[in-house]
Amino acid sequence: MKKTLTTTVPAALIALGLATAACAEIKVGASISATGPAAFLGDPEAKTLEMLVEQLNAKGGINGEEVALVLYDDGGDANKARTFATRLIEDDEVQAIIGGTTTGTSMSILSVAEDAEIPFISLAGAIDIIQPVKPYTFKTPHTDRMACQKIFEDMKKQGITKIGLISGTDGFGASMQAQCKDVIGEYGIEIVADETYDPKDADMTAQLTKIKNAAGVQAVLNPGFGQGPSIVTRNYKQLAIGLPLYQSHGVASDGFIELAGKDAAEGVRLPGTALLVAGLLADGDAQKPVVAAYKEAFEAKYKVPVSTFGGYAHDGFALLVDAITRAGSTEPEAIRDALETVSGLAGTTGIYTMSPENHLGLDLTAFRMLEIKDGDWTIVE
Questions:
Q1: Does one domain contain both 204 and 260?
Q2: Tell me: the pLDDT tens digits for 46-72?
Q3: Residue ranges of the Leucine-binding protein domain (predicted)?
Q4: Which of 27, 105, 272, 296 could disulfide-pair with 81, CB 3.0 to 4.6 Å?
């Protein structure tokens, strides 16, 4: 098995063949944001895909056929993601695509994949990726709408009825803000302060001060990802707001705690996956064996902690392998049909059961409400 690596500048293109094009009969494409502003999401995704393909081929591949991974780094640029998706389909002739680290890159890729009728498994959170259902598009992370619902469930349990909202204006932040506003009334909760920030802002003190002074505010929710939520968390501590602070699953990683600082992050709650609390899972938890195996393999190979985001790539690849295995075919339409009938597949993010009406296959039980205590993750429920 020959491994080839090619890079181009400035696009930071990586073409990684874990089996030579001549001998590999299954070609899987990927466009990942391994560098750029979303690198903290994309880097573990790229590493995960590389590792899993290597592991799979060492065991004989899928139905006896090796897998070639063709991976491009789009740097978080939606236009590059669209270009790479076209290249993967027209030049590399892949049978399926995994990727779309961000909502923006996912939307670009899916437009190309749908036109070409190539299965695409997104690794981004926005509900717009799969609703309305698109024939060839699937995804692995919970939707932003589900994150809102999980957070509001917890707030309701705490007797919280009035909140402040501070959202990033990036694609993820704007989408989650809209979804939260759409469902919040179902939980008897009212938004009494509504602020936004640009992802490049270095200080959110002004917005947080307005929220702090809003009448009746009992908690604050920050839809966003990247460095913004870490800055919000630090400013929140500096202003001594003293109210519960909720973040989104977009920052569910140890990196968030490091960027925000252990003291500032203390008490922050967010919906996360089993992967973040692997050591706390009960022995009978169906996800525990999958989570433990991935965590052990990734950390042994790369010497860094696993992240929720790498877990999304893990699950995307697992779904694809399962689909191709059951289909007994590498024809894109057959793969698509098999993805749509996935049932009870345990991943790091949840247990997937898809249908023609549901191209995610997760419900709220896949989320764990987590709280940061002493610089680490704990399970609230």
A1: yes
A2: 999 999 999 999 999 999 999 999 999
A3: 25-361
A4: 105
